[in-house]
Write a structure and sequence with these properties.
The complex is a heterodimer of chains A (160) and B (199). By secondary structure, chain A is mostly beta strands. In chain A, 10% of the residues lie in helices and 51% in strands. Chain A has one domain (26-150): Sandwich (Immunoglobulin-like). Chain A has one helix and eleven strands. In chain A, strands 1, 2, 3, 4, 5, 6, 7, 8, 9, 10 and 11 form an eleven-stranded mixed β-sheet that branches. Chain B is 39% helix and 22% strand. Chain B has helices at residues 3-32, 78-93, 114-121, 135-144, 186-198, and strands spanning 47-50, 55-57, 66-71, 101-106, 128-132, 149-153, 159-164, 167-170, 176-180.
Chain lengths: 160, 199
C-alpha cells in the first residue's frame, strides 16, 4: 500500500469513527443469525401511494429462516412482493408466505426483483431522508431498520 | 386463492392474449392482401381524456413524433423510474425534443382518476401528459398496442397490476417506429429518442 493510500485509509477510518460509523459496514443490522445490509428506498413521486424497500439479507445460521412481515412508519401497510420482467411485461406478485432466507445464503431485495412494497403512503419519501420500519423473521424475530432514501430512479443495491 | 390457481389463471390469461395477438396478426395480413406492407403495426387511433383537460386525439398528432407508455400510479418501481428516466432524457435532448409529447396512459382507470393522474405527472417533465381511458376504451386500446395488463389481487383486499412496460415510439407520420424497454441503458434510450426526433 502506498503512503498516499495508507494516509487516505487512515483518514477515512478516523472520519468514520468520528461520525460514529463502524469500519466495514456503514449500515448493517444483526438479529440472531440474520444479517441485514443497507435497507434503502427511492424518492417517491408526490401523490404516489406506494414505495418500495430493498436490502440484502444473509442467514449465517444452520437453519433456514423466513422474512414473514414488514411494517414502516411511512405507510399504512407493507407487503412482501416479487417483481419480474417476463419479456416486456412487468409482473408483480405478493408473496403471502414471505421470503425464505436459506441457511448460509444471502438473498437480495432489489429493483426488478424481490422487494417490500409500502402501500398507503402517509408522506412522500424524500431523497436524503431516512425512515424506520420493522422486519419480522419466523425464527430470528423482529428487528427495527432504517431505510436510506435514494434519488428517484437511483440504485443503492450494491452499496454496503 | 391458492397460489397454484392464481398461476393457472395467469397462464390462461397470457395464453389467451397470445392467441388473440396471433389471430389479430394473421387476420391483419389477410385483410391487407399480398401487395400491402406487412410491417408489424403497433398503435391505433385513440381519443382519450387528458390530464391537461379536454382530449388527445391521435389523428391530430401527425407531424410530430410522440411516445406512449402504459402504467399506473400505484406502481412502486417501473412507472416512476420510467417517467423519471424519460424526464432526464428530455432535459438532456434539449431543443430537438421541444415539441415532443409523451403520453402516460393508465391501465388502472378505477384508481387513476384524471385528478390523480394530473397530480402524479406533475412530478415529471411537463412534456409528459397523462391520459385516462375508460375501462372500455382500455380494452380496445390494449390489443392495438399489443399491451398486456391484468389485475393481481393482494391479501389486503387490494390489487396491483401486471403490465407491458415498454415505451412505444411513433414518428412524425404517426407510424410505430420502435420501443424502449424497461432497464435499457441510458445511452441507448437517448440514441433511440434522438433518432426518432431527427427522422
Amino acid at each position: 500500500m502506498s503512503l498516499f493510500k495508507q494516509t487516505v485509509f487512515a483518514s477515512a477510518l478516523t472520519l468514520a469513527s468520528a461520525i460514529g460509523i463502524a469500519p466495514g459496514d456503514a449500515h448493517e443490522i444483526k438479529l440472531g443469525n440474520i444479517v441485514i445490509h443497507h435497507p434503502w428506498s427511492r424518492q417517491s413521486p408526490r401523490a404516489a401511494d406506494v414505495a418500495a424497500g430493498y436490502m440484502t439479507i444473509a442467514n449465517t445460521g444452520k437453519e433456514d429462516d423466513r422474512l414473514v412481515r414488514a411494517t414502516s412508519e411511512i405507510s399504512a401497510s407493507a407487503q412482501i412482493h416479487d417483481m419480474r420482467m417476463a419479456g416486456d411485461v412487468m409482473r408483480m406478485e405478493e408473496l403471502p408466505d414471505g421470503i425464505v432466507i436459506p441457511a448460509g445464503a444471502t438473498v437480495k431485495l432489489r429493483p426488478k426483483g424481490l422487494h417490500i412494497m409500502f402501500t398507503g403512503l402517509r408522506q412522500q419519501v424524500m431523497e436524503g431522508e431516512e425512515f424506520s420500519g420493522t422486519l419480522t423473521f419466523e425464527k430470528a424475530g423482529t428487528v427495527s431498520v432504517n431505510y436510506e432514501v435514494a434519488a428517484p430512479g437511483g440504485d443503492m443495491s450494491d452499496m454496503h | 386463492m391458492k397460489l397454484k390457481n392464481k398461476r393457472a389463471i395467469l397462464i390462461a390469461a397470457v395464453a389467451s392474449i397470445l392467441v388473440a395477438g396471433a389471430a389479430a396478426w394473421f387476420a391483419d395480413d389477410l385483410l391487407r392482401g399480398p401487395n400491402q406492407s406487412s410491417v408489424f403495426e403497433i398503435g391505433g387511433p385513440f381519443v382519450l381524456a387528458s390530464s391537461r383537460g379536454g382530449v388527445v386525439d391521435s389523428k391530430k398528432l401527425a407531424g410530430k413524433p410522440y411516445a406512449v407508455f402504459f402504467g399506473f400510479t400505484h406502481c412502486p418501481e417501473v412507472c416512476p423510474t420510467t417517467l423519471y428516466e424519460m424526464s432526464n432524457s428530455l432535459a438532456a435532448l434539449g431543443d430537438v425534443a421541444k415539441d415532443f409529447r409523451v403520453f402516460f396512459i393508465t391501465v388502472d382507470p378505477e384508481r387513476d382518476t384524471l385528478e390523480a393522474m394530473k397530480d402524479y405527472v406533475a412530478n415529471f417533465d411537463p412534456r409528459i401528459e397523462a391520459l385516462v381511458p375508460t375501462e372500455d376504451q382500455l380494452k380496445q386500446l390494449a390489443p392495438d398496442f399489443r399491451v398486456y395488463y391484468a389485475r393481481v389481487p393482494t391479501n389486503d383486499g387490494g390489487y396491483t397490476m401486471d403490465h407491458t412496460a415498454s415505451i412505444f415510439l411513433f414518428d412524425s407520420s404517426g407510424r410505430f417506429s420502435g420501443t424502449i424497454s424497461y432497464g435499457e441503458a441510458a445511452e441507448m434510450r437517448q440514441a433511440k429518442l434522438r433518432k426518432l426526433l431527427l427522422s
